[in-house]
């Protein structure tokens, strides 16, 4: 299936990668080639981070990974059951402290979000889609996926090839076809001080 274009109606010129990135719900179970998985994590690797700490970690599994995949699927909340169709699932984590001095890294989740945004922005060029979600069992993620309390879960990400939206239930289909909306810049960008 072709990449489902739902271009952002941007008010100013932005990169095509940002206009094309969105969060579909209809995924195909078609296998994603290993080289594409490597490319996605390479994109994440080059995200900026405070002190170049690169606090992000990803635990992922494909439909070919048996028990590892089952562990990831068990973290999904019922409202995100659609994500089971995606060929691979990942959970992002952020290391809470700096390695160079042991101090708290207040920017860890911000930086991990940037890495995940780079990963998601890479998807359209590969014919892939990604959907980041908060709807997972955050409190169980560390123990289930083998991370210490030094790491905080960020988001769960479904990644794969586009599926057929007609296979979604009616409420999800409505979300899939809804127009993309964002707050106007005047609501989040303030010159000098917040109004």
Could you give a quick summary of the protein structure above?
This protein is of the alpha+beta class. Helix content is 29%, strand content 15%.
Number of helices: 6
Shape: globular
Strand order of the largest sheet: 1-2-4-3
CATH-level-2 architecture: 3-Layer(aba) Sandwich
Biggest sheet statistics: 4 strands, antiparallel
Radius of gyration: 17 Å
Q: Helicity level, as a percent range?
A: 25-40%
Family: Belongs to the nitroreductase family.
Region (Disordered): 168-195
Domain Nitroreductase: 19-65
Keywords: Oxidoreductase
Essential attributes:
NADH Oxidase, 195 residues, alpha+beta
Describe the structure.
It contains 6 helices and 4 strands. It has helices spanning 16-20, 34-45, 67-74, 108-122, 138-145, 170-177, and strands at residues 56-62, 88-95, 129-133, 151-160. The chain starts with 15 loop residues before the first helix and ends in an 18-residue tail after the last helix. With 195 residues, the protein is α+β, with helices and mostly antiparallel strands. The protein is globular and about 50 Å long. The mean pLDDT is 95. The protein has a 4-stranded antiparallel sheet with strand order 1-2-4-3. It has one domain (27-177): NADH Oxidase. This is Nitroreductase. Keywords: Oxidoreductase. Belongs to the nitroreductase family. Residues 168-195 are annotated as: Disordered. One of its GO terms (molecular function) is oxidoreductase activity.
What's the helix and strand layout?
Layout: H1 16-20, H2 34-45, E1 56-62, H3 67-74, E2 88-95, H4 108-122, E3 129-133, H5 138-145, E4 151-160, H6 170-177
């Amino acid at each position: 299936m072709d990449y489902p274009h739902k271009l952002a109606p941007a008010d100013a010129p932005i990169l095509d990668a940002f206009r094309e990135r969105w969060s579909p719900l209809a995924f195909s179970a078609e296998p994603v080639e290993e080289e594409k998985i490597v490319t996605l994590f390479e994109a994440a690797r080059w995200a900026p981070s405070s002190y170049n700490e690169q606090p992000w970690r990803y635990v992922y599994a494909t439909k070919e990974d048996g028990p590892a995949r089952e562990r990831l699927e068990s973290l999904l909340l019922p409202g995100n059951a659609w994500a089971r169709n995606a060929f691979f699932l990942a959970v992002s984590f952020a290391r809470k402290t700096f390695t160079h001095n042991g101090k708290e890294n207040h920017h860890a989740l911000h930086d991990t979000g940037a890495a995940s945004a780079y990963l998601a922005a890479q998807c359209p060029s590969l014919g892939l889609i990604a959907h980041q979600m908060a709807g997972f069992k955050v409190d169980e993620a560390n123990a289930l996926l083998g991370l210490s309390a030094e790491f905080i879960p960020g988001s769960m990400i479904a990644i794969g090839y586009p599926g057929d939206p007609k296979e979604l239930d009616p409420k999800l289909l409505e979300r899939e076809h809804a127009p993309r909306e964002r707050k106007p810049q005047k609501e989040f960008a303030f010159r000098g001080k917040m109004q």
